[in-house]
Design a protein that fits this description.
The chain is an alpha+beta fold. 30% of the residues lie in helices and 32% in strands.
């Protein structure tokens, strides 16, 4: 009997409120590491991450058992708290998140 393996992918874009340039280049590496830790703690795969001054792109591979909205919530709340705790930004980072699910999610049979 064949086993089925499914891997889903999503591109998440977290935008700063008002698209203000609040992510300094000096903090990008630490922010990337922090968000990577959030995704890995949920036992998912962060395949790519890049922070721009006004938004962050994350490309994530995730299992169908994961509720994507829960992962987005965890990334948003934890990273916002981390940024505020570090004193990098005093204001709200915003609530806008765009999610792109590629049409070609992969399903493999082994």
């Amino acid at each position: 009997m064949a086993n089925t393996y499914t891997q889903l992918y999503a591109q998440l874009i977290f935008a700063i409120k008002g698209r203000q340039n609040l992510i300094a280049c000096a903090h990008k590496a630490e922010l990337h590491q922090y968000i990577t830790g959030i995704v890995q703690k949920r036992e998912q795969k962060l395949l790519a991450i890049n922070a721009m001054p006004d938004h962050i792109h994350c490309f994530i591979g995730f299992a169908p058992s994961l509720t994507l909205s829960d992962l987005v919530r965890d990334i948003k709340s934890s990273s916002s708290g981390f940024i505020k705790e570090k004193g990098w930004c005093k204001q709200s980072l915003g609530k806008k998140v765009m999610v792109h699910l590629p049409m070609d999610n992969h399903r493999f049979t082994m």
